[in-house]
TrEMBL record:
This is Ribosome maturation factor RimM. It comes from Deinococcus carri. Belongs to the RimM family. Binds ribosomal protein uS19. Residues 10-85 form the RimM N-terminal domain. The gene is rimM. It is found in: Cytoplasm.
Length: 178
């Protein structure tokens, strides 16, 4: 079962929390984003209503509709957790969710558009932008000082820029490393 369009992966389930169906979540990003959600999309289960969310260090414990036992919570271990992009709480100016980066143009240091962001992948040690360009598709590390997320007047991301410090060949037109 594939996550619906316009959803963002927020983390994955670690295992039971307590004996009444609570599940610990490893959160990608800020755990606060999970505390106000009314529903989540669970890999293998679909949309589930959030009965209660508790902050844990580090992460969150979720109590979901239909899960009332430790054994039931155990069945979610390792499953990915998503939220509808529209359900996520608004962020302060200058902060953004990764789904806000999808569809943004990617510019080189000279300002020329060289590609477009199609997704963001959590690769564990660093996040990667999936960028389509003339040579195909590449993973671009979302890492300062090589990549800058530019924001518009409303404080929302509107472009990705590769800096002069970025290693050559990140988005090689022929798909080969320089």
């Amino acid at each position: 079962m594939t996550a619906p369009a316009d959803t963002t992966r927020l983390g994955y389930f670690l295992g039971p929390h307590g004996v009444q169906g609570g599940v610990k979540v490893y959160v990608l990003g800020d755990p606060e984003q999970l505390l106000t959600l009314e529903r989540v999309w669970v890999e293998g289960r679909g949309w589930l209503r959030v009965r209660r969310a508790e902050p844990l260090v580090p992460g969150v414990a979720l109590h979901l509709a239909g899960l009332t036992s430790r054994e039931g919570a155990e069945t979610l271990r390792g499953a990915n957790l998503y939220a509808a992009d529209a359900d996520l709480p608004p962020l302060d100016e200058g902060r953004y969710y990764y789904h806000d980066l999808r569809g943004l143009p990617v510019h080189d240091a000279d300002g020329e558009q060289v590609g477009e962001v199609t997704d963001v992948v959590d690769a564990g040690h660093q996040d990667l932008l999936v960028v389509t360009h003339a040579g195909g598709e590449s993973f671009l590390p979302l890492q300062a000082p090589y990549v800058v997320v530019r924001t518009g007047e409303a404080g929302r991301p509107d472009a990705i820029t590769l800096t002069e410090d970025a290693p050559s060949g990140l988005l090689d037109e022929e798909g080969e490393e320089a």
